[in-house]
Design a protein that fits this description.
The complex is a heterodimer of chains A (387) and B (244).
Chain A: H1 2-11, H2 15-42, H3 44-48, E1 53-58, E2 66-67, H4 70-75, E3 80-88, E4 104-107, H5 112-115, E5 119-120, H6 123-131, E6 135-139, H7 140-146, E7 153-157, E8 164-175, E9 185-188, H8 189-199, E10 206-207, E11 209-214, H9 220-230, E12 238-242, H10 243-252, H11 255-286, H12 288-297, H13 301-337, H14 349-376, H15 379-384
Parallel strand pairs in A: 4-9, 6-8
Antiparallel strand pairs in A: 1-11, 1-12, 2-10, 3-4, 3-11, 5-8, 6-9, 7-8
Chain B: E1 7-18, E2 21-33, E3 38-42, H1 49-57, E4 64-69, E5 72-73, H2 79-89, E6 90-93, H3 105-110, H4 120-133, H5 149-161, E7 167-171, H6 179-196, E8 199-203, H7 207-210, E9 215-220, E10 223-228
Parallel strand pairs in B: 3-8, 3-9, 6-7, 7-8
Antiparallel strand pairs in B: 1-2, 1-4, 4-5, 9-10
The chains are: A alpha+beta (387), B alpha/beta (244).
């Protein structure tokens, strides 16, 4: 059919111009996809959160601990299945460079991995860890990054908890899926507590927070209230919320940055829209005499408009496909370079859909005005036009 | 009983608005063109000859008067109706050929047939016949930029006749050609007129070109002046003059 032939042949008529426009589109769609992925990576922790887990922390601030005996009282509340303690350790591995930073948590060895089924452990490794006071379980991503293997010893300099601490790698846990973050290390809270008893007795017997597993996610609000009520008017009042709300609380602290990234991603699309619209306006202007000829031959204005719209959409589709295809390897490179910041950096299907939609939208919007102009051009004026 | 003229123009006027003023381009034109006639319109620049051709071809609309082509008053047709009418009744030959640069000769000639219900096989047969008629059977797959000016104009003529139109309008068809190519194109137009009975209305500045026509009408300042019949006209005096 001549329509498709005209669209495709016109597309490559000015090769340099088309190539430059497609290059711009590729860069824009790629940047848009990466920026959208950054926004999603920001929420990765919250996305990983389970509806059946609550977090109980000190109501004053997260930096203040809670007495460890709260664990038993929380466990006794109706609807609570299990409770685990977790302390942020915040130690330094090798040096303070960003690449060597990774989170370490002191946790309850008995229930921790039961509470987090998204971490897959090997039974023999889990058993070995439970028996080893200085043992640690290392996430797959962290192990791969630093080359940690079972049997290695990881020396970490404490900041919140002074001293040089040595941990034995007893096991490596695997992620259940791509959205699971495994760039962290868990060790025994008992080991931390015993050391504190020896070195700083006043700091012993405290938990950073409690992870509470509930049987019915539908009762999350009710159980949260019950936990906080249990410790009302105590020396350390609690604040209990869902794990997702807890994670989003961290994201909220950087909400402005996330918003800025989001805005920039759409500004990129706006800029490429202007570029493509300019290309299509020039293209349509140059070909006014051809469009007038087609109209003189009897082709209706809608056909002429469809030629320009088709060319515009074909141009942006080409750029969109290349941009989307490039997003995956670039995102993978981005992930390997910035895994300390974004342990999960996966291009989501909705990001690809947004990229495709942006490419299509830019194509339609950029071709709209030139196509209307060409469709409306008076034949006698168009025939006189020398492009 | 005399045959009805293929084009019948009565009291046709056209003006353009320039700088806030109406500038008359055609004034009270009355003219009949017989079926199978080869008529040339001559006149200085701005005399209105191209405007008259555009009106006859249905790509412009008059301000007043009637314009019947094969019995249809095309001044009353809407834009959409005019587009259909042009596709069925008018073959265009332009000074600068106006071929689609990205399509080859075959596809350019085939273009008007895309608006018909003809099958691919029927279209191919007709395009091959038309290109053979203009002597370009061996250039079917050449793009316009691979053809000389004369060859391009012959492709344009093949495109003009492909849908078997009622009239062929040619606006300075030899204006961009060398003498030899111009003569080839004129010979082709004469052949279409003489052998196939095509009605041709041609605008030209070139006195040599208009010698091919049976009748020459002169326009000056938007008005028809008494017509001149070339010495070698095939039927001297056989056609009506501009009506009073």
């Amino acid at each position: 059919m001549h329509y498709l032939k005209l669209v495709l042949k016109n597309l490559f008529r000015h090769r340099l111009r088309s190539a430059l426009t497609v290059t711009g589109l590729v860069v824009a769609i790629l940047a848009f996809g990466l920026l959208q992925t950054v926004v999603q990576a920001w929420y990765a922790g919250a996305d990983m959160a389970s509806a059946s887990r609550l977090i109980t922390r000190n109501a004053t601030s997260l930096v203040f601990p809670l007495p460890i005996y709260y664990r038993e009282r929380i466990k006794a509340i109706d609807g609570v299945k299990a409770v685990a303690v977790s302390n942020w350790f915040g130690g330094i591995y090798k040096d303070q460079s960003y690449g060597n930073f990774f989170p370490q948590f002191a946790v309850d060895d008995e229930v921790w991995f039961d509470l987090f089924p998204e971490f897959r452990t090997r039974p023999e490794e889990l058993l070995a860890w439970k028996k080893d006071q200085q043992g640690a379980m290392v996430g797959r991503q962290l192990a791969d990054e630093h080359g940690f293997k079972v049997g290695d010893t990881i020396p970490i300099k404490g900041t919140i908890f002074p001293g040089v601490w040595e941990f034995h790698v007893d096991g490596i846990f695997e992620p259940r899926d791509d959205a699971t973050i495994t760039r962290q290390m868990y060790f025994h809270w008992d080991y931390l507590n015993e050391q504190m008893k020896k070195l700083f007795p006043k700091r012993a017997e405290y938990a950073g927070l409690f992870v509470v597993q509930i049987a019915d996610p539908g009762r999350a609000a009710e159980i949260s209230q019950a936990i906080d009520k249990e410790f009302r008017n105590s020396l350390a009042e609690t604040l209990t919320e869902t794990e997702k709300a807890f994670q989003l609380g961290f994201v909220a602290q950087t909400e402005t940055i996330v918003m800025a990234v989001r805005v920039v991603s759409f500004v990129v699309i706006l800029i490429i829209f202007a570029v493509v619209a300019n290309t299509m306006a020039m293209t349509a202007r140059e070909r006014l005499s051809e469009y007038a000829t087609l109209k003189a031959l009897g082709f209706d204005p809608a056909f002429v408009a469809a030629l320009i719209l088709g060319e515009s959409v074909a141009l942006t589709t080409l750029g969109g496909i290349l941009g989307i295809a490039l997003t995956f390897p670039v995102a993978a490179a981005f992930k390997s370079l910035l895994s300390a910041v974004f342990p999960v950096f996966n291009v989501a299907p909705q990001t690809v859909a947004l990229q495709a939609l942006a490419a299509l939208g830019v194509g339609l919007a950029a071709g709209l005005l030139p196509s209307i102009r060409a469709a409306r051009v008076r034949i006698v004026e168009g025939l006189r036009y020398i492009g | 009983m005399a045959e009805r003229p293929i084009v019948s123009i009565a009291h046709l006027s056209k003006s353009y608005r320039r700088g806030g003023e109406d500038v008359p381009v055609l004034r009270d034109i009355t003219l009949d063109i017989a079926r199978g006639e080869f008529i040339a319109l001559m006149g200085p620049s701005g005399s209105g000859k191209s405007t008259l051709l555009n009106l006859i071809a249905g790509i412009d609309k008059p301000d007043a008067g009637t314009l019947l082509v094969d019995g249809d008053d095309i001044t009353r047709l809407s834009e959409a109706e005019l587009a259909d009418w042009r596709a069925a009744h008018v073959g265009f030959v332009f000074q600068f050929y106006n071929l689609m640069p990205v399509l080859d000769a075959f596809e350019n000639v085939e273009l008007p047939l895309m608006l018909t219900a003809l099958s691919r096989r029927e279209r191919r047969a007709r395009v091959e016949t038309a290109l053979a008629l203009v002597g370009l059977s061996d250039r079917m797959e050449h793009n316009p930029n691979e053809l000389s000016g004369g060859q391009q104009q012959r492709v344009a003529i093949a495109r003009a006749i492909i849908a078997d139109p009622t009239i062929i309008v040619a606006d300075e068809p030899t204006g961009d050609l060398d003498r030899k190519s111009a003569e080839d194109v004129l010979a082709l137009l004469r052949r279409l007129n003489g052998e196939m009975g095509k009605t041709i209305i041609m605008v030209s500045h070139d006195p040599h070109a208009v010698e091919s026509a049976e009748r020459v009408m002169h326009l000056e300042k938007g008005e028809l002046v008494p017509d001149v019949v070339p010495a070698q006209a095939k039927t001297p005096g056989g056609f009506p003059s501009a009506r009073e």
